[in-house]
User: What shape does this take?
Amino acid sequence: MKRLFISLYLLLSLSVLGISWTLDSLWQKNVDDNNALDAPLVAFAQLLAELPADTRQRYLETIPANPVMPLQLLNADQVALLDNQALSSSKVFTTTNNNSLLQFIRVGDQVLMAGPLDIDPRANLRSLFTLFFYLSLALVALIWVGPLSRDLSILRKATKEFGEAKWDTRITLSNRSQVKPLANTFNEMARHISALIENQKHLSNAVSHEIRTPLARLKFALALIPMYCQPDSDAQKRQNFIDEMQIDIKEIEDLLQELLTYASLESQREGIQLDEYDLIQLINQTIKRLENLSPIPLVIKTTIDKLPLLGEPALIERTLQNLLTNAQRFARTEIIIEVKQTQHRVNLSVSNDGEPIPAVDLPKVFEPFYRSQSVQNGNKGHGLGLAIIKRIMQRHQGDVSVSSNPYQTCFNLNWPIKRQL
Assistant: This one.
C-alpha cells in the first residue's frame, strides 16, 4: 500500500505541476503578453513627442476614432498621482476606474491617456484555460484510478470466490498493476490455505485408515474376553491375549503422538524460543543412546570438533533420531553420519548400505502417511517420521533430500547457520 500511495502522490503532484506550467506558458506566450500590447501605445507616444506641443492635439484629431481604445491628450497637471508614482515616456502606467481600465504615458510635458478600456477582455478565455486545467487533471486521475478500480474489482471477486470454498482461485494481474503485490500476497495465502485443507483431508483419511486395523483387532479381542476369562482358561494364553491388546493400544497411542507432533510443527510458527546448542555434541549423545538398539555400528565422520548453532535442539535431535532408527532397520554393515560446514550453512547426512528405496517412491517419501513399497523388515511405522523431518527442516529454514542406489541410501539435511527471525 505504501507503493500505491507514493505512486498516486507523485502522479498528482507531477501532473499538477506539468499541466500548470504548460498552460501558463501558453498563456504568457499567446495571450498575456502585456509588453506586446503596450508596444503600439509607447510607439505612438514617442511619435507625438517629436511634434511641437501645439500641434499634437490637431494631429491626434486627424486619427480616426477607435471606440475600443479611445485616446486623449492631457496636461500633466490634470493627472493626479501618488508621491511614489511617476509617469515615463517609455513605459505605460495602468490604473483602474470602476469597471474600466486607464493607461497613461508621458509625451513631453503632456500625458497621453488611453481609455477607458474594458477590464480583462480575455476573462472568458481565462475561464476556458482554467476549465481545461481541471479537465486535464481529472483525465490524469481517471487514467490512474480506472485500472486500479478494475484490479480492485478483480481482487474483490477473487476474495468472494475463495470465501465460497473455491480453493483453486488465483489472481492474475499485469506486472504494471499498482496492486500486484497485494495479488501476489493473496495467491500465496490461497496456496497455503489450499495446501492446509488438502493436507487436513489427507491426514483425516490416513488416520482413519491407520486406526481402523488396531481398532478392529481390539474389537475382536473384546469379543473373545469371556473365553479367556473362564476359571479353567490357560493363564499364559490369557496373558498373551492381554499383551496383544496392549500392543494395539500402544500402536494407536504412538500414531496419535506422531500426529500431534506433525500438527504442532505446522501451527507453532510464532514466538519460537531459540536456544544455543552444539551439533557435534548432540549427534554423539544421540548415537550413544541408540547404538544399543542395533548391532549395526553408527559412525560419525567430520573434521569439526565443535559446531555451535542457534535453533531448537530438541527438534534437531528428533530429526537425527528418526533418521538413525530408520537406517538401523535397513542397514547391512554400517551407518555413517557426516557433518560439513560452509560459511553460511550446515549439511548433515545419514547414509546406510541397505536395500535401496524404489525410484517410484523417492519423490513421495516425505509425504505424510506414505510408506515405501519395500516390505523389508515389515515396513514398520506410520509414515510420519520423514514428514516430521521435513517440517522440522522447514521450521529451521532448511530442506531435506534423499538419494538412493543399490550401494547406498543417503538423507541430506541442509539449513542456515544463522536463522532469520
Q: What stands out?
A: The chain has nine helices and eleven strands. The two ends are 24 Å apart (CA to CA).
